[in-house]
Amino acid sequence: MRMEPDWAATASLARPAQGSRKSRWLLTALVLSAVFWLFATYGETVESVVAIWWRSETFAHGFLIVPISAWLIWRRRDDLAAVELRPNFLALPLLAALGFGWLLGELGGVGVVQQYAVVLMVPALVWAILGTAVVRTLAFPLLFLLLAVPFGEFLVPPLMDRTADFTVGALRLTGIPVYREGTFFTLPSGNWSVVEACSGLRYLIASLTVGFLYAYLTYRTFWRRAAFFAASIVVPIVANWIRAYMIVMIGHLSGMKYAVGIDHIIYGWLFFGLVMLLLFWAGSFWREDLGPSDAPQTSPRVRERDPAMLRIVAAVVAATGVVAVWPAAAERLEAASAGAPPVLVSPHEAGAWRPVAGRLTDWTPHFANPTVSTDATYGHGEQRAGIYIGYYRNQRQGAELITSLNALVGSENERWGKTFEARRSVTFPHASVPLIESTLRGKQDRLLVWHWYWVAGRYVADPYRAKLMQATAKLAGKGDDGAVVIVYTPYDQQPDAARQVMRDFVDAMLPGVTRVLENARRSGHQS
Question: Which end of the chain, N or C, is more open, meaning fewer C-beta atoms within 10 Å of its C-beta?
Answer without folding.
Answer: N
